[in-house]
Amino acid sequence: MTHSAAHSTTPLRIMLGLSSVLAGVALILAPLSPQAIAVIVGIGLSLTGVALLLRAGRDRHEHRDALSASGIGLGFVVLALGTIIALWPSLGAPGLAALIGAALIAHGLFSALRALRAAASDRASEIIAAAATVIFGALTFAWPVLTLTVFRYALGAWFVFFGLRALVGLLPRKGSLAAPAAAGTRHPVLRRWTRTIGSVAALVVAVAFAWGSGSILGGVPLPEPDGFYTAPSQVPDEPGRLLRSEPLTTGVPAGAEAWKILYTTTHPDGSPAVSSGTVIAPKQRGKTPLPLLTISHGTTGVVPKCAPSLSATPFADGAGAALAEMVTEHGWAGVISDYIGLGTEGPHPYLIGEAEARNVLDASRAVQQLGHIRTTTDTVVWGHSQGGQGALWTGQIAEDYAPELTVKGIAAFAPASDLFGLAEIEKTEVGGKTVSAYIASTWDRIYPDLELEQHLTPGSAGPVEQIADHCFDGRDALAALLRGSQVPNQIFPDSVLDGPFGDRLKAQEPKGPFPAPVMVAQGLADPLVKPQMQHDWVEGRCRAGEQIDYRTFPGLSHNTLVAADSPLTPQIVQWTLDRWNGKAATPNCPAG
Fold this sequence. Notes:
This protein is α/β, with parallel strands linked by helices and 592 residues long. It folds into three domains: 3-169 and 189-217, no CATH class; 235-418 and 512-580, 3-Layer(aba) Sandwich (Rossmann fold), CATH 3.40.50.1820; 422-505. Helices cover 51% and strands 12% of the residues. It has helices at 3-8, 10-29, 34-63, 66-87, 89-116, 120-140, 144-168, 188-217, 320-328, 353-367, 386-401, 419-425, 430-446, 461-468, 475-485, 494-497, 500-506, 531-543, 568-580; strands at residues 242-248, 256-266, 272-282, 290-296, 333-337, 375-384, 406-413, 518-523, 548-553. The chain has a nine-stranded mixed sheet, sandwiched between helices. Helix 10 (353-367) packs across helix 11. The chain crosses the membrane at residues 12-30, 36-54, 66-88, 94-115, 127-146, 152-172, 193-212. Keywords: Hydrolase, Membrane, Transmembrane, Transmembrane helix.
């Protein structure tokens, strides 16, 4: 390249160098989402592609060989790849993670092949290092967001280095320093052992990380439903009919007795279905009917093995301590529906309010036929989280769907009252992605017209399937959340939320009228059901004429709100007893 040609490209090379440095600094220092990482990486790769083209053009002018021609081809490839990633970050984020993994695996396999031709003294360490590289490459597919996070810092440092080198290359050269003799040649044995130890250490870390990933992301083995949960060949069309029962001894509080039940109910479309559930009552009971608690349980998962009646702690969900007190100290009976699809054949109507409420009310009907105990047809309804939404819907439809039951009170703890608001606010958060995955896997079967599976964001389909197979219980819940954390994008694109799917979400909001006093409890440190969202829902119901007893608890989160030591626990008990004894409700609708 002539002096004048080199001089004409100097401003462009300065701009590229500075831009590369700035992109690197942004990757290292700025708080970035996976999509923002993809945009900056795409811009950085585009700039790198332009720089490669400039350098290849200079080399071709000077040498005109095949190597410089291939450099031009590489520059165009890098430029095109960077442009695609920058312009389509929703596609670029998962694609970039997959590209990193594929590149690592390819590099590891290539290194292994090259190691076979290496000197015998170096072969072992190179093969070990290649194996570690392949394992790390495979792990990127399980941890795409973590991969992008690590990659951003490494690539950011490289962008800074690349840009500074380009800028330094523009400085006038006054001479060069002779490179000293390679120090590595002085101690070949030490160098060989250092490389071997480093390779072994890398392999140990890779294998440990792979084992840990499999252990955590795989969840824990959970019992599958046995023959008790299988529907009989002849199922009555009438909802609320008890089909069978058997004693339950696992996880039953001292002083209580429990049973599993199988009963008839309805699918979301109104067709006959079968659901399972549990009943708990005091061991010591007289001849008078027991006051009845009807409980709508919170999220436990969306597949049959996630039924609360299969859990080692079937009565611990939500306000478990308050339930135990109501049964063993105040002589109440409680009935908890598993819901369709948990224990029994699905699909589970996850967060579909009216369908859940039918399952809950039919469980209260079925318990009337259980020969072991007698209960009242008057009932108080409880629910936490998903169950909070279910409890509100249970009260809302009770008079029409099950007029033989009388609801005397409805208590909802951190209810998912505004499902659309929940989906909108938390679409990029770990909890929101996990809940969205549960919705996607169940609603796609219940509402096939929405075609949700075909409209998930790029990179979401696989995680949705994996999350759906995990129960939201113990280590399995951790696995579900971790998989949710590795979804680079929100599960549902905004275009889907703004369409018919969004309308269906809005239709799940319980609006009343409610036939009995309502108490809503909310932790003000809840990261899942946002306090402001709950406040807005309560305020809206109050404006509509509903009388809500709204109680907030500073410092309590989604789960600590209903923990045994929560200040809400004794309040739940007293509020329930007050409803049973006919005491006046204490609404306190918030102002403004």
